[in-house]
Structures are given as structure tokens and as C-alpha cells.
Amino acid sequence: MNKYIEIFKISYTQEFAYKLSFIMWRVRNVIQIFVAFYLWDTIFYFSGRELFGYDRSRILSYFFGLIFIKALVLSARAQDVAGDIARGEIMNYLLKPVNYFKYWLVRDFSSKTLNIVFALIESVVLFLIFKPPIFLQTDMVQIAFFILSIVIAVLIYFLLLFSVNSIPFWAPELGWGGHFLVTVIIVEFLSGSLFPLDILPYNLQNFLSYTPFPYLIFFPLQIYLGKIKGLVVIKGILVSVTWIIFLWYFMNRIWKSGLKAYQAYGR
Amino acid sequence: MGQKSQLWWDLPAIDTFELNKAIYEIPSKKYSDTLNELVELLEVGKLLNTQVRRLSLGQRMRLELIAALLHSPKVLFLDEPTIGLDVVAQQKVRDFIYEYNKKHSATIILTSHNMEDLLDLARRVIVIDKGGLLFDGVLGDLVGQFAKEKIIKIYLSKHADLKRLDEIGKVIKINYPLVVMSVAREASAVAAAEILQNFPIADLTIEEESIESIIVRVFKGEIIKKKS
């Protein structure tokens, strides 16, 4: 256990090694939310207007919630795995008495801790600027489901990132491609971090609900906002847990054959 | 250790050491003893708190060595530990490996194309080429077995008819006043005496064939594999 605490500590220090880069990443996050926030605020400006099942307070809460969910789910370090493999540095860890998956899970966790602290500060500042009507969930059952769905989201994202980052085992210089695919296209678009997914046509929504992506961001937020309840929530949790099991199995398979293909080349 | 760096590039080396301490579950007392000893041997006390990316290659290599040795491994693989280092740093690393080997009676396997490493450190030498074993044995044997010739270097005091030298041995290089020739190992003393008698000599030395040239010949296949 001690080793993982130490990994947590060094990873934390590492994040701070380049303060400017970290701050820019936070600024990028905030600006994205700023833009979305203003856009939707304008649409819902006339009081009492309700679109796609959202009123002004819920839609603004959605984008406010994004700050936290993104800090919790999408801030990760496991995208560096590809580089580790391409440069052959993964060797250092294979030789040591340390579990490589747990190693990155801990590093993800340290990144999330740091980001959530900043997200708290940012949202207080944003709250003071916008003074938006925020929807507070008070139903304990919904909150419990919300927390569970966050844990699921974190695991799904970790497994996705790890699988995609195994590409360099076979194509050493393709690490960036996988990362681009996952973060930019899939995560930004299909997870609900640009717009709530329930404004999409019903068939598409239905289809997406069987992919792992909405469970990263959209699903937890829906639970928090109380837009889905009871059986729908349980169904979603079942689907997402199934995805975790599948991705876990898939990642292990990839990883095993990856290590066989791996030849410890490097720059 | 060697080609793959394990130090955290953006952090001071001491952070990596602390991490390794936790990963290998080294007790605190033993950790600080080993660290102090290694730091002293490698003379890196002032570098521990410098961000790794700001260090020179030689400084970094010495810190890499520490990172690899904190848990006192019994077997050590070193992949070109002296590559790209300046002469002083090379010597420091070599001296250190020697000391470490003596102190911990650890098995050290190192690959190198630096013959000084071989001469200073290696008891057993294995020459590998294209996946085949060309030689495996004591360094002395490599020389004794394959250096069938000795090198005689002559400095002439004045011009002389060098053709007659061919009768004594094989002339490798003439660069007046220096003449380099090789003679059969057993005949070296006789040859030297003969040269001294018949030529105007300012200086004469008898040397072993250099380890590089022996290995070059091993690679060229002049030396046939030992029968297995």
C-alpha cells in the first residue's frame, strides 16, 4: 500500500513541475464551459421556457456540473502509457515489483484529486460571476446512484484509455492517433460534454445508451439532475457495469498479446 | 540500466529514489545507509535536488546507477553504462562498478563497446556476433589464445634499408622514424635482438596486440569458434 501512496505523491509533484501547463489546461476547461454556458443561457433566457425537458436552472446546472464531472472523470494520466511503450520505458516498470495497472490508476487518481481542487475554486469564482440558479439534488437515493455512476465512469475511462494506449505495442508511433480518437472525437462528442445527449434524435440516443460513452459524463449528470430515476438508472448501471467487465477482459487480452509483441526497442 | 532512463525527467533525482524505496519496500535505515554510501562513491551529493533534465549525461548516468542499486540487487545488467560519457565520468562509473562488485559480491553483466570497460572490469568475456557465440572465456585467454603475435615498435635513429626487416617479421606500418611490425609470439625476443643488432635503433618496444584488434579479428572470423 505504501508504494501506491508514494506513487501518488510523486505523480502529484510531477503535475506541479510545469505550473503554467497545468494552469493552461484548467483555463481551457473553463473557457469551454464558459462558451457552452452562455450559449444555453441565451436560449433559455425567457423564463418558464422549457426545451428538451430542461428548464433554465437545469441546463445551467448541467454545464456547471460539467466542471466537476470533467475534473473527476476526464482528468487522467493514463494517456502517457502510449509514450512509455513507444519509448520502451515501460521496461522500468515491468522489472519492478509494482503492478502497472495499479500504478496508472493511482496516477490517474492523483491527477483527479488535483483537478477537483481546482474545479472547486473555479466553480466558486464562476458562481460568483454568473449567480446562476443551480439545481440542488436532495434525494439521497439519487445522490447515492450519482456517486456510484461516477465511480463507474472513472473506471470506464481508465479502461478505454489504457486499451487505446496499447496501440504502440504494434505501431510505436501511432500513440497520438488513438489518443486523439478517444479524447477529441469520442469523449467530447459522445459523452455529453458539449451538449446534453437527450437533444439528439431518439433512435440515436437509444443506440448510444448501449455504448460506453454516455456513461462517462451524460449519465451521471442525468442522475444528479433527477432526469432519470429508478429502473432507468438501474438499467444504465447494468449496461455500464457490463461494459466495465468487457473492457477489463478486452484490455487484459490486448495487454497480454501486446507484451508478447513488445521487443523493448525504444529511442 | 543504461539506454532506458528510469529517473523522472521533470523532478529531482531524490524523488525517484524515494519512489524506488517504496516500490522495493526498502527499510528506512537501510535506504539512507545505501543512499549515503552510493552518493559518496559517485560524488553526486550536490545533484540530488536538481531537476533531472538540467543534469549532464554523465551526472545523470551516475544518478541512474544509484536508482538501479538502491535495493542492492544481486544481479546487475548494465547496457553500455559508459556510452557517451567524458573520460572522467567514464572512469568514475568504472571505478564504482568495480567497488560495488567487490563489496556486494554481485554478479554484473555489462555490454559495452568500450574496451577500457573490458580491461578494467571484465573477468569473463563473451563475444557475440549475429546471434552466434564467438568467444566465451577469461579475457587473458582471449589474448593468450588468439594473440599469436607481438607488436614491435621501432624508432630508427637514421635511414636504413628496411627490406631486410621483412625477413624478421611482418611490417605493418612505416612512418619514418617509426616502424611497426608484428612477429610470432615465441620469436619476439629473438627478433628484437636481431633488429637491435642490425639496425640503427633509437628506441624499441615490444607490445601485446591491442584488445580491439584481437576482437576485430574475432569478428572477421579469423578466429574460429571454440569446438563445443
TrEMBL record, chain A:
Keywords carried by this UniProt record: Membrane, Transmembrane, Transmembrane helix
Membrane spanning stretches: 30-47, 59-78, 113-131, 143-164, 176-195, 207-225, 231-250
InterPro entries (alphabetical): ABC-2_transporter-like
Domain of life: Bacteria
Listed Pfam families: ABC2_membrane_6
Keyword Lyase set for record: no
Protein name: ABC transporter permease protein
Taxonomic source organism: Candidatus Woesebacteria bacterium GW2011_GWA1_37_7
From TrEMBL, chain B:
Domain of life: Bacteria
GO MF, one annotated term: ATP hydrolysis activity
The organism of origin for this protein: Candidatus Woesebacteria bacterium GW2011_GWA1_37_7
SUPFAM superfamilies: P-loop containing nucleoside triphosphate hydrolases (SSF52540)
UniProt-recorded name of the protein: ABC transporter related protein
Entry annotated with the keyword ATP-binding: yes
Domain ATPase AAA-type core: 36-115
Cleavable signal peptide: none
InterPro entries documented for this protein: ABC_transporter_ATP-binding, ATPase_AAA_core, P-loop_NTPase
Swiss-Prot/TrEMBL keywords: ATP-binding, Nucleotide-binding, Transport
